[in-house]
Amino acid sequence: MTARGIRNNNPGNLRHGSKWDGLAATQADPDFCQFVTMTKGCRALIKTLRTYVERHGLRTVRGIVNRWAPPSENDTGSYVRSVAAAVRHDADEPLRFEADPLLYLDLAKAIARHENGADAELITDDAWEVGMKEAGL
Predict the structure, then answer these.
(1) CA distance 132 to 106
(2) pLDDT (tens digit, 9 = 90+) per residue, 87-125?
(3) Model-level pTM greater than 0.70?
(4) What mean pLDDT value characterizes the chain?
(5) Residue 120 and residue 60: Cα distance in Å, rounded?
(6) Distance CA 97, CA 126 (A)
(7) Which of 17, 35, 36, 43 keeps 20 to 30 A from 130, CA to CA?
(8) Which residues pair with 109 in a beta bridge?
């Protein structure tokens, strides 16, 4: 069976709470948002990352992942190592998003891979690119 985040068009497995653009009219999953398209799910993931950086001042992989996947619910240490390796940065290295806005995309893809395993490869480059543009990057 395909990973839950892919089935829900929600590659970051964002929980219910925010009134996202592109939410499906029926939210049958009791825990995670369901989006009408994968593009809308990619947009929501990237916008959340932007909020973490711009509003909350999180600028390291460790800081971002600890907020995204808190230790009370996840093996955050493993998650941090996975994402840091994928984006080719030390977990505690300050990330320079202003110099390289594509770091948001790299982080989003790494989170999607950790959340969905190999099924993350089902997300098209077009869904990521349009989602990134719709997220304001």
Answers:
(1) 11
(2) 999 999 999 999 999 999 999 999 999 999 999 999 999
(3) yes
(4) 95
(5) 23
(6) 22
(7) 17
(8) none
